[in-house]
Design a protein that fits this description.
By secondary structure, the protein is an alpha+beta fold. The protein is built from seven helices and eight strands; from the N terminus they run H-E-E-H-H-H-E-E-E-H-E-H-E-E-H. Strand 1 and strand 2 form a beta hairpin.
């Protein structure tokens, strides 16, 4: 698994290219990361400047160098419109968590679901995972739909499990196991 972390592979779907993020992506990421609508359901605040986005990308690049990130830019029609990653990977227990964000202009087009399905496929086939999970704030209906359409099953609500943006958030947990994946 650590070899893959050091060289994040390019993954392709019917419409998308999932590729490593670079400093050349700063304006594209700032475009959606500066949106209050996009930032509403994530743990971070909307970016206020290009420097803030550059700092974010620098963290990703450092993570690549240290073999700590499997993080992809979502490219659609040759334009970076979001990101998707394994937020965490537990190699001992062979499970991972997916996180994603997408430019509002591309919501409700099946793009995030397509990217999530590709990461799920990659996680089971290439990383040998047995469980892949994702979480979202309870009121984030769009993310819930992505998880369901990606084959994940709702497992429950983690009540007040995250303190984000000044309030304790209820979080919905979804997951797919290798058995679910094989039988889908």
């Amino acid at each position: 698994m650590s070899d893959l972390k050091q060289a994040v592979p390019v993954l392709k779907t019917e419409r998308l290219t999932l590729r490593p993020v670079t400093l050349n992506d700063v304006e594209a990421i700032f475009h959606y990361a500066s949106s209050e609508h996009v930032a509403r359901y994530v743990t971070w605040d909307a970016h206020k400047s290009l420097d803030e986005t550059k700092d974010f990308i620098a963290l990703i690049l450092t993570g690549y160098q240290q073999g700590q990130h499997l993080f992809w830019g979502i490219e659609y029609e040759q334009k970076l419109i979001g990101t998707i990653d394994f937020v965490s990977i537990n190699e001992t227990h062979k499970f991972a968590e997916i996180g994603y964000v997408l430019s509002e202009a591309y919501w409700n087009k099946g793009i995030t679901t397509e990217a999530a399905k590709k990461l799920i496929d990659f996680g089971f086939k290439e990383l040998g995972l047995v469980r892949i999970q994702a979480r979202c704030f309870e009121e984030n209906i769009g993310s819930q739909k992505v998880m369901e359409k990606s084959g994940m099953l709702f497992e429950g609500i983690l009540r007040k499990s995250m303190f984000v943006k000044g309030i304790h958030q209820n979080v919905k947990m979804y997951a797919i196991t290798d058995d679910d994946y094989v039988n889908s």
